[in-house]
Known about the structure:
There is one protein chain. This protein is of the alpha+beta class. The protein is built from 24 helices and 15 strands. The chain has helices spanning about 10-20, 30-35, 55-65, 110-115, 145-150, 160-165, 170-180, 185-195, 205-215, 220-230, 230-235, 240, 255-270, 275-285, 290, 305-320, 325-335, 340-345, 350-360, 365-375, 380-405, 415-425, 430-445, 450-465; strands at about 25-30, 45-50, 70-75, 80, 85-90, 95, 105-110, 125-130, 140, 150-155, 185, 250, 250-255, 295, 300. The strands form five sheets. The protein has a seven-stranded mixed sheet. Strand 12 and strand 13 (about 250-255) form a beta hairpin. It is elongated. The structure holds adenosine-5'-triphosphate and magnesium ion. The site of magnesium ion has 2 residues, from loops. Adenosine-5'-triphosphate binds near residues 31, 124 and 166.
Amino acid sequence: MNTPQLPENPLFRTIAEAAGELGYPAYVIGGFVRDLALVRPSKDVDVVCVGDGIKLAQAVGRKLPGKPRVTVFKNFGTAMLPTETVELEFVGARKESYRAESRKPEVEAGTLEEDLARRDFTINALALSLNPQDFGTLVDRYEGMRDLQQKIIRTPLDPDITFSDDPLRMMRAVRFATQLNFDIEPDTYDAIARNKDRIKIVSQERITDELNKIIKAAKPSYGFKLLFQTGLLQLIFPKMALLYGVEKVGKHAHKDNFYHTLQVLDNVVDAGGDLWLRWAAILHDIAKPATKRYFPNVGWTFHGHEDKGARWVPGIFTDLKLPLGEEMRMVQKLVRLHLRPIALVKETVTDSAVRRLLFEAGDDIDRLMLLCRADITSKDHQRKELYLRNFGLVEEKLREVESKDHLRNFKPVITGEVIMEAFGLKPSREVGELKDAVLEAILDGKVRNEFEEAFAYLLQLGQAKGLPPVHPFTHQ
Length: 476
Ligand code: ATP
Ligand code: MG
């Protein structure tokens, strides 16, 4: 592991100069220094000074070409300065003291030592000097370099104190372990398990922020295992923790849905799935525990878990303070449809079944297929290979039907308005029934989704019901 070195960027000399003029010792600190050592890209540079961070930011701003505007966050005593290469964040060194029942720290000005001591982990408590006498020298009071080398997440102080002061740090420990593929040092780990209940005083937004960072990592399953083993998951997302476990009656055992879900999640990541596809993976079997039943002759069933799970999605998103728009509706759709493609493997695949799936999935068909392929997990290698091969046939069929019928963005040509006008009907159940009947015929492949043909079919349906057409030709 190389000692981190300040990059060749005149910016750092400029900050040093401004700090010197103000008489403030100043340091680059935290994640940026850690990422330099790890040779990891990093866009935010945190600068700490023993003095007024806002004043320093303004002084630096005046020295930079183009004099960028400083954004001041008065409540936090921090200031942000955008530059061409990186975003600079300035803060005065501080010490914190917490009262047991409050999550709002009392913040007081402090020394560099005190500022390092209130940091979450040793690997985040590294600083590089911007002072003339030792410009660029590393300050490492808590053996952060050793922990980077050994790939260990450890708190600088007694972990019970660090976690109790700000319980979000427990989530951050898991998050950094997952992002960096590090271990959590045993005393730190035990302290998380001991202090887990304190997570309840942290806002859901902050928790979900860290959770999403875990999910965005290259191997999110590792983070979820840590969350589960420390007991945090049971508190922040109990429905997911309920997936854990295997029940057995006689020779009938079902698979552990927690580990299955994590496998599907990692598979989705490997296939390039974005955050929302990853959420779909996490939630695809979420209602299995609630729908689980045992039948002596059949074994375990989870009948309807896809529909129940889909119905739960808005509630889960609300609880976790995830956005309730388009992304949520996509996740909900994928949960609802996640069994459909795989069902096509077992049957002889008819064009009609494929058409129906394309119609329901619409633009999300590729995401659905990705999720469904990721859902094929079996310890039996041969069985898995067979399933994957058959699944490939379904994908092929899907492409074939799609290129023929363009059902992905399917808009039925026979709308309610067309029907009402054709037969002089008012909005009614009958109109809905006729519309569905035409749609069924199109999806069955009996009629093409083309106005003339579909309209002719509509008239036939009307005739059978004794409905005379009023305006048979106006829509051609
Ligand atoms: P990244 O930006 O990649 O998420 P980071 O380490 O820069 O990682 P930030 O959340 O940006 O993390 O925080 C910057 C630094 O501030 C951290 O490196 C750490 O030293 C400190 N820090 C942030 N949040 C906390 C916290 N809750 N408790 C203690 N120190 C913290
Ligand atoms: Mg950062």
